[in-house]
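Fig. S4 source data, part A: sequence.
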Amino acid sequence: MAKEKKRKTKAYYSGIGGQAVLEGIMMKNKDKYAVAVRKPDDEIEVDIDEYSGVLKGHVAKEIPFLRGVFNFIDSLVLGMKTINYSASFYEDDVTTETKFEKLLNKVFRGKADKVISAVVTVFSVALAIGIFIILPYFLTGLLTKNVRNDTLTNLIEGLIRIIIFVLYVLLISLSKDIKRVYMYHGAEHKCINCIEHGHPLTVNNVMKSSRLHRRCGTSFLLLVILVSIVLFFFIHVDSRALRLVIRVLLIPVIAGISYEILRLAGRTSGLLIKIISAPGLLLQKITTREPDEKMVEVAISAVEAVFDWKDFLKEKFNWEEEETSQEVKEP
């Protein structure tokens, strides 16, 4: 009797990433992306397109630290676009265009949707800066009026920023719709983990894979906060107004550093990487939930539309087609 092949336990970077949307998943591989949505009639709709980013292949997108800023912008733009697409399947059947919509389309020559989406994205970023940068700064000022120790003040500000972020994540998780988005988020991670650990992309294998992944938007946002705490330690100016301005201006720098750390965590493994990744993985226990099999089917559809997982397994794990039925024994 032939000996059973031992499955490699090492994980390999696949290069694919994704995002949960309303009743679906967006998966991206290089410039190609797909959005798979479970429609109200229970069918899965898959839309495949390309997105090259705001700079469309410019050399600046490959420069370390700078590329993180552009990747963040791209993720916001594409994220908004794919969320709007998924939501379109669940909007009320209203076909009548309002006078305001007609005016916008006339002013922007039929591109009102894109303009509105851009405005919403900018507003969302401004709101995030207000909640997670400006608000903690002012709250710290109120709590540390008589404190003259800059190190202690920065620590308190950082702690407040972390508390606000975690509370925000916890509060939105109470929404029924967000809970389902978190379940799809879990399905997205499970699919990527399944592939990157050398297992055929089947519903059974995906269900048994981990819902936590180092390369995650949740981990990135937490890294941004943690990096900002460290960076702000080196800012020593007397003017409170100037300190606030510097904090806002440093956001691209913080995003660039955080992206490089997350990128490194997704490609390498070691004690230091595990320590750095631990807080983000812990927070993902909130922002991801265990999906059901129908959600996993949607996630698999999105992956297969942009990524040849069979070729990946053959290249990295010497996988053979006959092994498709093999199930994961450990999550």
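Fig. S4 source data, part B ends here. The CA atoms of residues 34 and 304 lie 9 Å apart.
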